[in-house]
């Protein structure tokens, strides 16, 4: 099964879903597009189907129907989703559509009227109903046992852990709240139970995700949840502290820089805790006027103060962020403020997007949209500066000893990640000597001996 290109290819990176159907067992295919939050939705759907007696087909030809979990965040993502639906129709013919773009059924059916059903994001029951209609189940209670960890679309040694759904922010460029609703946090004990099962099954890294991780539990009024011999608040600090005791790496994504985030940093500075000194924070911009036009809940000067405070507590913290250049009304002076801010912030990992309209986003109506050539020029200048910062930071790691997690091993090298690298979006550390006995999921001590602009090379420490 082939699906979304570049960085997030859960269907191609799939290390655990295999074709193991018994005779007569109905088979379903899955194409999963978009962000890790959508990937978790795909895993939950497949886990439910597997429990009901369906087998998972790794290709179009072997599937009796195909589910396409779509992305609808940007117009380019919508186009990709429509292409994926079209490919599935051409290759298989029986297609069920779900996910973020599924909230726009008329839009989908306008291009692909023959799809069997269309459902919105995290509408698991509707997806299952559509599958039941298209391909009736044939369960065998003696064979169709649900694996303890469910069906996974990531390698066995790491897993995404979704702690909440939806978002309460009203950023003008974003339609996620319209598609996925307001913040809805999972109970702390349910998250911890899932995390514990994953670690018991061999997961070495838990990647905590949501649309707004910092806001976790706000909708639940930070209620107390029973967990083993104690209670745990539905609060990001309490939840993270507990996750850090499970014996795996814990990496936090999509953390808004609220003041209470500072409470997380001592956990990252504690060597006995599994919480990695890593924060993925969507700053988006630094100029106060641009942030105001975005309706973002932050200001560039305040975030610099927070960054300074975080580094004072945990000097080794890795900071990752994404930014938008060419937002409507962005002037050259405002863009220069962003470049100056980046110089001062010295972020470790940086991604950047050129602004584009999204159907239904309020930013579409803003005046003074930036021409495409200027957006491209600003993107080039931004990435050049970010690359220079990254290269200098990685060069400073040469000669250091560090622990790495092995992701893949082939005939040329072992591809690993340091605590500063999230899968798919950050860099790698390569071991190209004395690696033949390594396997994915191994934790290895290395000495860094070479650095590039985004990646490191090292030798095993003996």
From TrEMBL:
The keyword Mitochondrion does not apply. One of its GO terms (molecular function) is protein methylthiotransferase activity. It is an enzyme of class 2 (transferase). Its main location: cytoplasm. Keywords: 4Fe-4S, Cytoplasm, Iron, Iron-sulfur, Metal-binding, Ribonucleoprotein, Ribosomal protein, S-adenosyl-L-methionine, Transferase. It is found in: Cytoplasm. Residues 26-136 form the MTTase N-terminal domain. GO terms for cellular component: cytosol; ribosome. Residues 153-392 form the Radical SAM core domain. Its EC number is 2.8.4.4. InterPro entries: Elp3/MiaA/NifB-like_rSAM, Methylthiotransferase, Methylthiotransferase_N, Methylthiotransferase_N_sf, NA-bd_OB-fold, Ribosomal_uS12_MeSTrfase_RimO, rSAM, rSAM_horseshoe. Binds 2 [4Fe-4S] clusters. One cluster is coordinated with 3 cysteines and an exchangeable S-adenosyl-L-methionine. Its cofactor is [4Fe-4S] cluster. GO terms for biological process: tRNA modification. It catalyses: L-aspartate(89)-[ribosomal protein uS12]-hydrogen + (sulfur carrier)-SH + AH2 + 2 S-adenosyl-L-methionine = 3-methylsulfanyl-L-aspartate(89)-[ribosomal protein uS12]-hydrogen + (sulfur carrier)-H + 5'-deoxyadenosine + L-methionine + A + S-adenosyl-L-homocysteine + 2 H(+). [4Fe-4S] cluster 1 binds at residues 35, 71, 100. It comes from the Bacteria. [4Fe-4S] cluster 2 binds at residues 167, 171, 174. Belongs to the methylthiotransferase family. RimO subfamily. Catalyzes the methylthiolation of an aspartic acid residue of ribosomal protein uS12. This is Ribosomal protein uS12 methylthiotransferase RimO.
């Amino acid at each position: 099964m082939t699906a979304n290109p570049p960085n997030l290819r859960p269907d191609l990176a799939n290390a655990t879903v295999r074709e193991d159907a018994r005779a007569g067992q109905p088979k379903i295919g899955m194409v999963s597009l978009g962000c890790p939050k959508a990937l978790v939705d795909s895993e939950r759907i497949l886990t439910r189907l597997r429990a009901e007696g369906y087998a998972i087909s790794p290709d179009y030809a072997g599937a009796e129907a195909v589910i396409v979990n779509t992305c609808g965040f940007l117009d380019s993502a919508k186009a990709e989703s429509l292409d994926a639906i079209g490919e599935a129709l051409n290759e298989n013919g029986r297609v069920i559509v779900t996910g973020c773009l599924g909230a726009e059924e008329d839009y989908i059916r306008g291009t692909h009227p023959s799809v069997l059903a269309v459902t919105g994001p995290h509408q698991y029951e509707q997806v299952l109903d559509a599958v039941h209609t298209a391909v009736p189940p044939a369960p065998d209670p003696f064979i169709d046992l649900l694996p303890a960890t469910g069906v996974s679309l990531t390698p066995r040694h790491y897993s995404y852990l979704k702690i909440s759904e939806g978002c309460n922010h009203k950023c003008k460029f974003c339609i996620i709240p319209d598609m996925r609703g307001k913040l809805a946090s999972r109970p702390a004990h349910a998250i911890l139970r899932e995390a514990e099962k994953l670690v018991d099954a061999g997961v070495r890294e838990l990647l905590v995700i949501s649309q707004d991780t910092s806001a976790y539990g706000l909708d639940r009024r930070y209620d107390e949840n029973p967990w083993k011999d104690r209670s745990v608040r539905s609060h990001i600090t309490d939840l993270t502290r507990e996750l850090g005791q499970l014996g795996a790496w814990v990496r936090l994504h999509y953390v808004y820089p609220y003041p209470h985030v500072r409470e997380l940093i001592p956990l990252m500075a504690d060597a006995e805790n599994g919480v990695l000194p890593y924060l993925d924070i969507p700053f988006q911009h630094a100029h106060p006027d641009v942030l105001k036009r975005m309706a973002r809940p932050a200001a560039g000067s305040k975030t610099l103060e927070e960054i300074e405070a975080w580094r004072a507590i945990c000097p080794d913290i890795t900071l990752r962020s994404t930014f938008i250049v060419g937002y409507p009304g962005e002037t050259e002076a405002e863009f220069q403020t962003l470049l100056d801010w980046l110089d001062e912030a010295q972020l470790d990992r940086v991604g950047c997007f050129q602004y584009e309209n999204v159907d239904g986003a309020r930013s579409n109506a803003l005046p003074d949209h930036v021409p495409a050539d200027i957006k491209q020029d600003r993107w080039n200048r931004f990435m050049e500066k970010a690359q220079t910062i990254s290269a200098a930071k990685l060069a400073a790691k040469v000669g250091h000893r560090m622990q790495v997690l092995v992701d893949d091993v082939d005939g040329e090298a072992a591809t690993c990640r340091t605590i500063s690298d999230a899968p798919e979006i950050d860099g790698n550390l390569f071991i190209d000597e004395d690696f033949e006995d390594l396997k994915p999921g191994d934790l290895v001590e290395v000495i860094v001996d070479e650095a590039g602009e985004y990646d490191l090379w090292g030798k095993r420490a003996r």
